[in-house]
Amino acid sequence: MSGLLVFLRREGGEQVGVEVDADASVDTLSGEAQKLWGPRARELRFQGAILKSGSALADTGVCSQSVVDVCMGITIRFECDYDLWLDMKGVRIEIPAGLLPDISLGARHSGYHTILAVHAAPEGCGLTPGMVLSTEFVLLYPPRRLSRFYRRVSPDESVSLEEVVQASGGRPQRPESGFTAVEISAASPPGVYTVGADPDGTVLSAFRKTNIAADVYRQIEDLRPDAEKVEFTVHTTSSCTRIPHDAIVSRVVEEYADDGEDGPVIMFEEIGDLDLFDE
Beta partners for 266? Predict the structure, then answer.
């Protein structure tokens, strides 16, 4: 049986060809990677997907001349809290009052909070399906402005932006009539940032390797050290658990290894960013 020539590509671009049997497993290829780069070469990815230990290469799509990426360490995933994301990426959009009934919204969870997301919106209003909205919006009463906060929306509830405005907090409970538009901050939802982390390193050191970390620290411009600017929460299907910035990556991944095939998602947010209006 002829073998397969597979190219292993290490983070940073180094690429080496290795030959394995046609019936080889992912573990065989992983062993070749560890011979080249040591025990930290623990994870293999092909076309972006993790190659599962125990699988036959033939079942993964890997064939002769394929290029397989070698992650030096443990893959760890980070996701930005919606409030911090909106602070960084949000754009202020002014929506005429007459369009509010035609904008359909629902709720998304953001750590310990809930935030509004767009289900449907008229073309040209500035909003598109999937966008997330800030908890604060401004009612425009020429020539004055009035800031308000929305009341909580259940995740299984669909409401219009008009209903949200009419039920918003502040005094008086219902807004005065006569406003001509609503100004609100909106952004596309945050993605998941995946990095290969040192198993013996800290969660904070892994976060610093993401391509969003620099934006986060630019947004939080104060004299606090990095470890005191951002806090981390592991999200599972049943709970949210705060973890310290100096938690060891391998221990976190091991503790939450059962939360999906790709492991846990660690939410990051600004320390002390409490949403007092999310009831």
Answer: 78, 234
Each domain of the chain, given as residue ranges in start order, spans: 3-72, 82-187, 191-270
Pairing of strands 67-72, 3-10: parallel
Q: Tokens 């409030």 label which residue?
A: 83
CB 233, CB 111: distance < 8 Å: yes
Give yes or no on whether 3-72 and 191-270 have one common fold. yes
CATH number for the domain running over 82-187: 2.30.42
CATH 3.40.50.300 fits 3-72, yes or no: no
pTM: predicted TM-score of the whole model, two decimal places: 0.70
The CATH code that applies to domain 191-270 is: 3.10.20
Q: Contact, 105 vs 130, CB < 8 A?
A: no
At 16-46, the pLDDT tens digits run 999 999 899 999 999 999 899 887 777 888 9
| φ, ψ of residue 208 in degrees (nearest 5) | -60, -20
Residue 81: Cβ-neighbour burial (10 angstroms; 0-12, 13-18, 19+) = buried
What are the backbone angles phi and psi of residue 178, rounded to the nearest 5°? 105, -5
Q: In this predicted model, what pLDDT tens digit does every residue of 100-158 receive, in sequence order?
A: 999 999 987 765 667 889 999 999 999 999 999 998 899 999 888 888 888 777 777 88
187 with 89: CB under 8 angstroms? yes
CA torsion sign, 51 to 57 to 60 to 66?
A: positive
> Which helix (H) or strand (E) segment is 184 a member of?
strand 181-187
In three-state secondary structure terms, 277 is: coil
Residue with tokens 């995740």: 155
Are 243 and 207 spatial neighbours (Cβ–Cβ below 8 Å)? Answer: no
Q: What is the rounded distance in angstroms from the CA atom of residue 62 to the CA atom of residue 75? A: 20
